[in-house]
Amino acid sequence: SSFHLFVIRIKNKYSRERLFNFLRKKKILVNLHYIPIHLHPYYKRLGFKKGQFLQSEKHAERAISLPIFPSLKIKQVKLVSNYINYFLNKNEK
User: Fold this and answer.
1) CA–CA distance, 41 with 1 (Å, rounded to integer)
2) pLDDT, tens digit, for every residue of 24-83?
3) Cα separations (Å) of 5 from 49, 54, 62, 92?
4) Cα 73 → chain centroid
């Protein structure tokens, strides 16, 4: 691993966008990576279309990148974990 990204995948019943917004409001700098390559403009011009690579599209719709960097403290990791668990527990009902 290059420790470049730490990605989690949200189950279908959870909204990635809602979790993303919830964490951003809590000042957790989550991000979204990457859109499937066949959906980039260059490859669309070559004729690739949405629906051709369903697994990569499904992954992209459910993945969120969590903060990861050399100076990340255990306390910060626990805070992010606690927020995610809180969100998932609150929204699982």
Assistant:
1) 29
2) 999 999 999 889 999 999 999 999 999 999 999 999 999 999 999 989 999 999 999 999
3) 27, 22, 15, 26
4) 21
User: Residue 53 is encoded by which pair of tokens?
Assistant: 């690579």
Tell me how many degrees the CA angle 75-63-14 measures, rounded to the nearest 5: 90
Calpha distance 75→73 (Å, rounded): 5
9 forms beta bridges with: 63
Residue type (1 letter), 10: I
Axis crossing angle, helix 74-91 with helix 16-25, rounded to the nearest 10? 130
pTM equals 0.83
